[in-house]
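thought: fold this chain, then report.
action: predict
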Amino acid sequence: MGTHHSLHALVVDDSAPNRKVAEGMLAHLGCAVATAATGQEALDRLAAQRTDVVFIDLRMSGMDGFELTRRILESIPVPIRPRLIALTGSCAEGERDRCLAVGFDDYLEKPFGLAVLASVIKPLLNSDPPSQTTAELTVPSPPDSNQNPAFDRRNLDSLGSAAGVDSVTEWIDMFLRDASNLLAEIWLDLEGNRPAHAADRLHCLKGSASTIGGIGLAAMAREAETRVLSGTVSSWSGIRPGLESELDALQSYLKKEFEHRK
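observation:
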């Protein structure tokens, strides 16, 4: 584990797997970490405890990251205001500039590795984060040409080397439960004629799949989200076969590759 530091971090994300992975990475880098699933929960935590840096997912259901940031800027004076880091799965042009313009201090595109996270928090630490972690992860190893093309295992491998195999298998189990629940909720939203809610859940699925390395499922969720928002698909049957088969394939691959390491 990393050397103890006095940095207090808060991770705000409505995806449980994303919160868990970020929490594990920050803890390894020496932070005391709290998490929040909603903007209001984050505001309550900020009012109750010391926080040095807040990682805020931009697209959350209910209060989104931009609204949460606006409220933080209004309620916490500059001398004691934590550093605000935007988290987004979007690579849209101008997204970074938009984040900085509304008051964020920095911007991270998901999924991100330990080296990138270490570089963001380094200026806030009393001393440098664990040097071996940063050195090992500054230049990612190239993808294995023999690996499953729908899965990029590099992030989980590097996280496993830092946090341990038990943490990785816990994150995988949490992701699989969350993904199954999201698919059930997407079905209910589409059957109930709530396309905006379905699109939000597809966006969440895309983000958590990317974090875990499921690039095939993430791409399919992104495509389904676009189709739902554009109105080209309005029923579960229009997106169900691809999403379910991709999740089943990812589950089989993850179990095969990581379960035996326990």
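thought: worth noting. Residues 165-191 form the longest helix (27 residues).
final: tokens above.
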